[in-house]
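Postdoc handover notes: sequence design on the structure in folder B. Input tokens:
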């Protein structure tokens, strides 16, 4: 089993100060269908380092933790899906003449052979996955 590191960039017609929120636990609710983070303790700032939230699907539950934040330039998250995978998601934002260039990097380690196969599939489809983010956000902004 091998660690998978994948990265891709999307462009948004928003300055980093506005685009940053779209990549936070609460902000993703605005454009990710079915995204419903649950905070085990009330938190006024979902980007504060150390903040924890959970997401769930019918197959698995993931625990997220804000690892670092440098508003509006970057935010990173640790994420663990018990018995499946663990790793980080890093989001960096840079101002452009038309808005922001956003780079999203997943660094994931599979915890089982089945998870390794699933991560291989995820890595193969990653560019299309990030393009879908750009499309979902554009539709939300329209």
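Designed sequence:
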């Amino acid at each position: 089993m091998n660690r998978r590191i994948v990265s891709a960039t999307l462009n948004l017609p928003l300055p980093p100060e506005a685009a940053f929120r779209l990549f936070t636990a609460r902000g993703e609710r605005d454009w990710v269908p079915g995204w419903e983070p649950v905070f085990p303790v009330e938190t006024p700032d979902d980007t504060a380092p150390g903040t924890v939230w959970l997401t769930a699907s019918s197959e698995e539950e993931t625990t997220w933790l804000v690892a670092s934040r440098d508003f509006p330039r970057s935010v990173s998250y640790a994420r663990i899906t018990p018995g499946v995978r663990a790793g980080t998601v890093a989001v960096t934002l840079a101002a452009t003449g038309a808005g922001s260039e956003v780079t999203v990097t997943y660094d994931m380690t599979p915890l089982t052979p089945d998870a390794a196969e699933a991560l291989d599939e995820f890595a193969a489809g990653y560019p299309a996955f990030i393009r879908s983010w750009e499309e979902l956000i554009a539709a939300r902004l329209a």
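Context for whoever picks this up: The chain has a mean pLDDT of 96. Don't rerun without checking with the PI first.
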